[in-house]
C-alpha cells in the first residue's frame, strides 16, 4: 500500500487510491512487478536511482496489464515525500498527442476538417501563410522554421505576425521541421472550433472521459491530497510541476506543453484509447500513420527490431523530462517521468526499459567510483554511517560501500554523489564522483565533524566554491 504519512486524510486517500488501482489492475504495495520482466524493470529503475540519481516514476504495460510501476526519489516539496505512482509531473511536449487527439475529436464531430486552412479558424493569418492547413500543423510540415518562436501572452493578433513571420520556407506539406509554435496555434484552432478554451475542451473531451481525475495544466491547483514533483533544473531555478515554466500558460507554451499528470492517469488514458473511448479506430489509425521523418499527427512512429510499430513522444522542459510510448500490437505502453532535466540518467532508464521489454539486457553505464587512497579507517567509517538533516530538511546520507564511505546529499531535487575521505593532514572532506544529475562541488570541500564523546552528532559541509557552509545534524 502507499505511504500514509500525514494522518487520517492521507490514510483515507491511500485507501481510496488502492480501491481505484485495484479496479485498474494496479493494486500493490508501493510498486508493481509482475513476472520476470516486470521485476527486472522495477529492480533496474531502483538501481538507476541509487547509482545515477534518477528521480521519477515508470509504468510498463503489456497485453493490457500493468507489469511494472514504480516511483523512486523524493518529491522535493517543502514536506518532501517519496515519489509514487500518484505523484504528478509535468510532461512538456508529451502534451502534443493530447492536443492532436482533441483536433481529431473535433474532426469526428464535424467541427473542422484536417485539410481546413488554418485561416478558417484563426483570423489574421497573413497572405503568405494561407496555404497552411490544420494537418500541416499536426504533422510539423507547415514550412515555418523552428526558430519562429517569439511571442507570448493570450492575444492571437499579437503572436501571429511573429509566429508566421516570413511565411513558409518550403511549400507546406513537403518538408518536416519540428516547430513548437504550430501546436500553440492548434490550441487556438481547438478553442475556436469547439467554442471552449483549450484547457476546458481537453478536460471535457479527453481527461474526464478517460477518468484522468488528477491531471491538470500548469498554473492550476494541485489535485486534493496529491504529491507534486519539484523538478531539478540544470539551468534556471527548480520548479514545481504546477508552476509555469514560462511565466504563464499563454501562446508561448499552450498546446505544445503544460499537461501535468501521473502514471495512474496515463494508464487510464492508454486504456481509454485502446477501448476506443476517445477516438474511433479510423481516427487513431489516421493520426498514427507516419509522414516525413516518422512524425504522424502528434506522434512519432517507430518500427522496433521485432517489427512492431510503436507510437511515442518525448518531452523536455525546465526541471522535467518525459516519454510516453504505446504499442498497440502488444496492447502495451511505457511511461517514463523524471523530476530532473538531466538527460543522461533519464535516457539510461528509458533505453533499459525498452531493452528489457525486448528481452535484451539493460543499457550499460559506469557507476561512480571512489578513490581507495582516501578511505577513512574502519572505526571512522563505522561512526560516520547514518542519516543527517539540515535546517531545511535536506538529507545527507552516509552508507558503507565496501571499505568506502559513500555519501549522497538530496537537495530537495538535485542530488550530489560522492565519498567522504581523508585529505592530507587526515582532514575529512567530501570528494564528488562523476555521477550524472549531480550538484558538483570541488574536491577540496571540507567536512567539519561534531562529536559527543566518540559519537558523531553532526557534519558541516564547507563548500569552497562559494565559501558557504551547510550543517547537517544526525537523526
From TrEMBL:
<protein>
    <submittedName>
        <fullName>Putative penicillin-binding protein PbpX</fullName>
    </submittedName>
</protein>
<feature type="domain" description="Beta-lactamase-related">
    <location>
        <begin position="44"/>
        <end position="346"/>
    </location>
</feature>
<dbReference type="Pfam" id="PF00144">
    <property type="entry name" value="Beta-lactamase"/>
</dbReference>
<dbReference type="InterPro" id="IPR001466">
    <property type="entry name" value="Beta-lactam-related"/>
</dbReference>
<dbReference type="InterPro" id="IPR012338">
    <property type="entry name" value="Beta-lactam/transpept-like"/>
</dbReference>
<feature type="signal peptide">
    <location>
        <begin position="1"/>
        <end position="27"/>
    </location>
</feature>
<dbReference type="InterPro" id="IPR050491">
    <property type="entry name" value="AmpC-like"/>
</dbReference>
<keyword id="KW-0732">Signal</keyword>
Amino acid at each position: 500500500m502507499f505511504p500514509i504519512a500525514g494522518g487520517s486524510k492521507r490514510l483515507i486517500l491511500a485507501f481510496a487510491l488502492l480501491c481505484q488501482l485495484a479496479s485498474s489492475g494496479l493494486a500493490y504495495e508501493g510498486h508493481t512487478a509482475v513476472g520476470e520482466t516486470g521485476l527486472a524493470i522495477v529492480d533496474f529503475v531502483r538501481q538507476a536511482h541509487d547509482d545515477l540519481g534518477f528521480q521519477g516514476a515508470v509504468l510498463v504495460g503489456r497485453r493490457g496489464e500493468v507489469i511494472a510501476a514504480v516511483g523512486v526519489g523524493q518529491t522535493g516539496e517543502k514536506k518532501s515525500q517519496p515519489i509514487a505512482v500518484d505523484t504528478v509531473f509535468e510532461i512538456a511536449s508529451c502534451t502534443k498527442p493530447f492536443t492532436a487527439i482533441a483536433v481529431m475529436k473535433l474532426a469526428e464531430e464535424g467541427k473542422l476538417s484536417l485539410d481546413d486552412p488554418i485561416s478558417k479558424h484563426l483570423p489574421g493569418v497573413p497572405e503568405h501563410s494561407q496555404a497552411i492547413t490544420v494537418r500541416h500543423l499536426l504533422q510539423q510540415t507547415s514550412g515555418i522554421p523552428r526558430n519562429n518562436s517569439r511571442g507570448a501572452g493570450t492575444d492571437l493578433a499579437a503572436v501571429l505576425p511573429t509566429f508566421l513571420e516570413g511565411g513558409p520556407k518550403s511549400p507546406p506539406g513537403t518538408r518536416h521541421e519540428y516547430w513548437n509554435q504550430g501546436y500553440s496555434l492548434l490550441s487556438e484552432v481547438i478553442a475556436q472550433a469547439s467554442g471552449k478554451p483549450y484547457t476546458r475542451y481537453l478536460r471535457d473531451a479527453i481527461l474526464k472521459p478517460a477518468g484522468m481525475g488528477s491531471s491538470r495544466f500548469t498554473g492550476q491547483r494541485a489535485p486534493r491530497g496529491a504529491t507534486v514533483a519539484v523538478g531539478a533544473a540544470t539551468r534556471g531555478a527548480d520548479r514545481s510541476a504546477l508552476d509555469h515554466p514560462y511565466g504563464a500558460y499563454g501562446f508561448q507554451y499552450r498546446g505544445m506543453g503544460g499537461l501535468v499528470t501521473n502514471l495512474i492517469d496515463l494508464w487510464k488514458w492508454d486504456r481509454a484509447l485502446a477501448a476506443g473511448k476517445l477516438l474511433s479506430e479510423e481516427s487513431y489509425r489516421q493520426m498514427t500513420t507516419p509522414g516525413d521523418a516518422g512524425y504522424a499527427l502528434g506522434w512519432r512512429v517507430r518500427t522496433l527490431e521485432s517489427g512492431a510499430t510503436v507510437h511515442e513522444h518525448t518531452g523536455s522542459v525546465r526541471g522535467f523530462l518525459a516519454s510516453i510510448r504505446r504499442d498497440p500490437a502488444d496492447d502495451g505502453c511505457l511511461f517514463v517521468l523524471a523530476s530532473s532535466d538531466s538527460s543522461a540518467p533519464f535516457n539510461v532508464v528509458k533505453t533499459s526499459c525498452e531493452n528489457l521489454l525486448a528481452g535484451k539486457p539493460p543499457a550499460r553505464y559506469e557507476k561512480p567510483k571512489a578513490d581507495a587512497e582516501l578511505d577513512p579507517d574502519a572505526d571512522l567509517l563505522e561512526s560516520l554511517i547514518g542519516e543527517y538533516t539540515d535546517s531545511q530538511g535536506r538529507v545527507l546520507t552516509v552508507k558503507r560501500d565496501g571499505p568506502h564511505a559513500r555519501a549522497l546529499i538530496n537537495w530537495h531535487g538535485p542530488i550530489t554523489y560522492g565519498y567522504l575521505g581523508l585529505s592530507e593532514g587526515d582532514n575529512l572532506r567530501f570528494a564528488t564522483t562523476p555521477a550524472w544529475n549531480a550538484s558538483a562541488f570541488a574536491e577540496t570541500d571540507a567536512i567539519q565533524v561534531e562529536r559527543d564523546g566518540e559519537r558523531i552528532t553532526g557534519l558541516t559541509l564547507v563548500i569552497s566554491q562559494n565559501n558557504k557552509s551547510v550543517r547537517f545534524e544526525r537523526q
